[in-house]
Design goal:
The chain is α+β, with helices and mostly antiparallel strands. It has a domain of about 70 residues. It is about 40% helix and about 30% strand. It has a 4-stranded antiparallel β-sheet. The termini are close together.
Length: about 100
């Protein structure tokens, strides 16, 4: 059984249109090449407990752990990550979590 992996990102985007054009569309294309998808990309939220920092939330799904790591560590994504971290946002968090195993 395959176990999908999810990326959950919470960040403070400086300019949503600039972020979308320079980062979001490129990440979406990379995800699709992996057989992954972006499930959530929104400024909307309804905090029910605790504190949710940031003005942008993204949830992405990839087929398995190996796909997740190979994408995250790829030179193509590392360039985008640096752009996101140093120019497009004022900080944030990204976690990778395993999903529930799926039948092949």
């Amino acid at each position: 059984m395959k176990k999908p992996y999810f990326f959950i990102a919470q960040m403070q985007v400086k300019d949503h249109a600039d972020y979308h054009q320079r980062y979001g569309l490129k990440v979406l294309a990379q995800m699709e090449q992996l057989g992954g998808e972006i499930l959530v990309a929104t400024a909307s939220k309804e905090v029910k407990e605790g504190e949710w920092l940031g003005n942008w939330t993204v949830v992405g799904k990839v087929p398995d752990y190996d796909s997740a790591i190979s994408w995250w560590e790829s030179p193509e994504y590392r360039q985008l990550a640096e752009l996101r971290q140093q120019i497009l946002t004022d900080g944030g968090s990204v976690v990778m979590v395993p999903g529930i195993p799926q039948p092949d």
